[in-house]
Amino acid sequence: MYKIMTICVNGVGTSIMAKKLVSNSISELGYNIKDIEIDETSFSKVETVSCDLLITTAGLGERIPDSVRSHIDVVTVVNMISGKEKMKEALKPYLEKAANDGLISKK
Q: Which residues form the PTS EIIB type-2 domain (predicted)?
């Protein structure tokens, strides 16, 4: 199972709304959402997350430690709530790689 985490400062606002945008974007890109777990968390927990891909804002993305970046891909987007086209653009290469690696499938 491929796991995506959305991260905002407190893990209760933007990151929760971003989950829906990520889910819709994945479906619109033609991938099977059943192959992907999407969860949210706060920035304070970023060093303890276990996932394949982190999605956050540019401001928080700059603060993610190298120790996390060394084993988790990080995507930064300007608008994690309503920027669907930018979200799809940001997700596409990571989803393609996950599909090529056999982790997720197309619908």
A: 2-99
Model confidence pLDDT, tens digit, residues 79-89: 766 678 889 99
CA nearest 29: which of 101, 97, 75? 97
Measure the CA–CA gap between 45 and 29, rounded to whole angstroms: 29
Are the beta carbons of 32 and 107 closer than 8 angstroms?
yes
Domains of the chain, residue spans? 2-100
Query: What b/e string do you get for 62-92 counting C-beta neighbours within 10 Å, with b at 16 or more?
Result: eebeeeeeeebebbbbeebbebeeebbebbe
DSSP character for 83?
-
pTM of the model: 0.90
Q: What is the CATH number of domain 2-100?
A: 3.40.50.2300
